[in-house]
Amino acid sequence: MAGLGDMVNKAKEWAGENPDKADSFVDKGGDAVKGKLGGHEEQVDQFGDKAKGFLHGENPPEGEQPPPPPPQ
User: Fold this and answer.
1) Residue 45: what pLDDT?
2) Model pLDDT, residue 44
3) pLDDT at 13 > cutoff 90
4) Contact 33, 26 (CB under 8 A)
5) Using one digit for the tens of pLDDT, what is the confidence trace for 22-70?
6) φ, ψ (nearest 5 deg) of residue 71
7) Which residue from 52, 47, 41, 65 is spatially nearest to 16, judged by alpha carbons?
8) Residue 67's pLDDT is what?
9) b/e map of 33-48 (b: 16 or more CB within 10 Å)?
10) Which whole number is the average pLDDT over 8-19?
11) What residues have CB less than 8 Å from 12, skipping those under 6 apart?
12) DSSP string computed for 1-62
């Protein structure tokens, strides 16, 4: 059975290969949450932006350092 870390890494890998689809899924999820939590649209949008950044390797989780850039 895969651990949570493995699933996160696979999601990030998939998002890197399919950035438009990943962003679309985050947006659709955010819209669904906004429908349930009226009045918190700004917070949901902020979370969505952070999720997109995380999936694209831009925002590491708090307390973690981003990975070094690949050698060129």
Assistant:
1) 93
2) 92
3) no
4) no
5) 999 999 999 999 888 888 899 999 999 998 888 887 765 566 655 666 7
6) -65, 145
7) 52
8) 62
9) ebeeeeeeeeebeeeb
10) 86
11) 54, 55, 57
12) ---HHHHHHHHHHHHHH-HHHHHHHHHHHHHHHHHHSTT-HHHHHHHHHHHHHHHTTSSPPT
Q: Quickly tell me which residue has 């696979």 as its tokens.
A: 10
Side chain identity at residue 31, one-letter code = D
| Residue with the two structure tokens 């990975």 | 67
Amino acid at 47: F
Q: What is the mean predicted confidence (pLDDT) over 3-12?
A: 84
Helix 4-17 vs helix 41-55: angle between axes, to the nearest 10 degrees? 90
CA gap 42, 4 in Å, rounded = 28
Tokens representing 71 are 């050698």
**Three-point CA angle 18, 23, 29, nearest 5°:** 130
Q: Which two tokens stand for residue 45?
A: 């949008």
